[in-house]
Amino acid sequence: MKQTLTIRDLTLKHRQRTLVDRVELTLKAGQVHALVGASGSGKSLTSLGILDLLPPGVHSSGASLLLDGQAVDAAQLRGRQVALVLQNPRSAFNPVRSLRQHALETLHARGLQGVEAEQLIQATLHEVGLHDDQRVLDSFAFQLSGGMLQRMMIALALLADSRFLLADEPTSDLDVVAQARFLDLLQRLVEQRNLGVLLITHDMGVVARCADQVSVMAHGRIVEQADVHQLFNAPQSQEARTLLAAHHSLTMESCAP
Amino acid sequence: MSFIQVRDLEHGYSAGGLFSKRHRVQVLSGLNLDLHEGQSLGLLGGSGSGKSTLARLLMGLESADRGSIVFKGQPPFLQRVQMVFQDALSAFNPQRSIGWSIAEPLRHLSDMDAAACRDRVEQLLQQVQLEARDIDKLPAQLSGGQLQRAGIARAMAIGPQLIILDEALSNLDRVLQVQILDLLAQVRHESGTGFLLITHDLSLVQRFCQRVVVLAEGKLVEDLPVTAQMRFTHPAARTLQEAVLPAMPRVRTVRDHVDARTLEKL
């Protein structure tokens, strides 16, 4: 069983500009590690950098990736040990292939085919709350809602039997109800399947709801790392205080008994 | 005094592809609403509840299948009512400068000359806390938050009595949402503009609005003044209220630990 995934010294540059500066993160199985920060602070690039899926022109230097302390290559991890869930689920699917083809492709990578694959796909779709599985599988990405596609992305991650999940703003495009359901699902999978999650978000409400550890990012650097209770009760960095102030000015009233 | 009066509004669409069987989707049925002058009203609803359809009908971008929308203000309508859209980037002409776009309502709805328009645009940019040099930038050169503020500046340009914000804050981060709500509150105090804030996020309504209505199953199922203690009674509205994220992380209870241990055994 894989227990930890560590990225060390992740530095990303575009030409001479440093976009992400010596970032270190450790994900633990069965825990949600939140990565928070303002727009443009380098959160998404960090998650792409971990899997070496950088956009053209952005270069990584000196980073090392460790799975349970053993150095590994990002190309061997992605889609297998580590899955990625993106903000905009519609653009993450191939528009001319049905979701069934996506699922079968994922299982094919694991060497599973035929009846066994079909049964596993059905069971996994039920696990993520897509109960109308045949309709979903026959559909194309544009025929389903954002919330359903987000669940399908998670289902694909589960089909790949990933131990770790990198989720980049997974709920920002969903309405509050779909968001609550998605976070419920994530939490259940963390508990039941011992999944390790990196949850990238700008919403401290999401952090309060389901994170264990929090890293705060500003201008490409990690400026604070703390346990979620410690961060909410005694934030150290200016960035964390700004995020919490915005969060509390929107939530304190509504939470008053 | 009601400013816009909506009575027994019904509207729907035909869904389905060119070759598939056509389905009729009824979005609004029997909706009644009174919008009051100078009031900031929150319109709350989940995805697909018909919020944007209602906004488009109010603006006259589509005409309703049945029912009436009566505007009781002084015409022309667009001089009194303006709208800000969710996707700021697609709401601007990509080939024209920000200043040109913000001045567009002035060119069509007022008799200001070019110099007066430019002065007004500069004043508006300052009001929404954009820089004076942003006036010549293209939409693609601004960030999402800056562009949304430019959208608000454009809606304010003609000095309307009502601004409709259709999920205009949903794509922004929390820090920006709070900044823009503060900005809008200031506009409301200074000029008495009314707002219709369309959103799925109750926390925004609670911060900004005086009254909230909830849209579900094609009609308004709640209509309440906004207070800290307000509680919805309709099931759909309660779902929206209960989905609001917590202010603080919850303390892990003993039960959770027990659950985790039982799971390990399994």
Automatic annotation (TrEMBL), chain A:
The keyword ATP-binding belongs to this UniProt entry's keyword annotation: yes
Gene3D superfamilies reported in the protein's UniProt record: P-loop containing nucleotide triphosphate hydrolases (3.40.50.300)
Entry's family note: Belongs to the ABC transporter superfamily.
Record's protein name: Nickel import ATP-binding protein NikD
Entry GO MF terms: ATP binding; ATP hydrolysis activity
Membrane spanning residue stretches: none
Database matches in InterPro entries: AAA+_ATPase, ABC_Ni/Peptide_Import, ABC_transporter-like_ATP-bd, ABC_transporter-like_CS, P-loop_NTPase
Organism: Pseudomonas fragi
A Pfam family hit: ABC_tran
PROSITE patterns the record matches: ABC_TRANSPORTER_1 (PS00211), ABC_TRANSPORTER_2 (PS50893)
Keyword vocabulary terms for this entry: ATP-binding, Cell inner membrane, Cell membrane, Membrane, Nucleotide-binding, Translocase, Transport
Lineage: superkingdom: Bacteria
SUPFAM superfamilies cross-referenced by the UniProt entry: P-loop containing nucleoside triphosphate hydrolases
Residue ranges annotated for the ABC transporter domain, each copy included: 5-244
Subcellular location: Cell inner membrane
GO cellular component, one term: plasma membrane
Automatic annotation (TrEMBL), chain B:
Gene Ontology biological process terms, A to Z: transmembrane transport
SMART domains xrefs: AAA
InterPro entries, alphabetized: AAA+_ATPase, ABC_transp_ATP-bind, ABC_transporter-like_ATP-bd, ABC_transporter-like_CS, P-loop_NTPase
EC number: 3.6.3.24
Entry keyword Nucleotide-binding: yes
Residue ranges occupied by any ABC transporter domain in the UniProt entry: 4-242
GO molecular function, one term: ATP binding
Domain of life: Bacteria
Enzyme class of the recorded protein, top EC level: hydrolase
tRNA processing in keyword set: no
Keywords: ATP-binding, Hydrolase, Nucleotide-binding, Transport
Family as reported in the entry's similarity comment: Belongs to the ABC transporter superfamily.
Descriptive protein name: Nickel import ATP-binding protein NikE
Species: Pseudomonas fragi
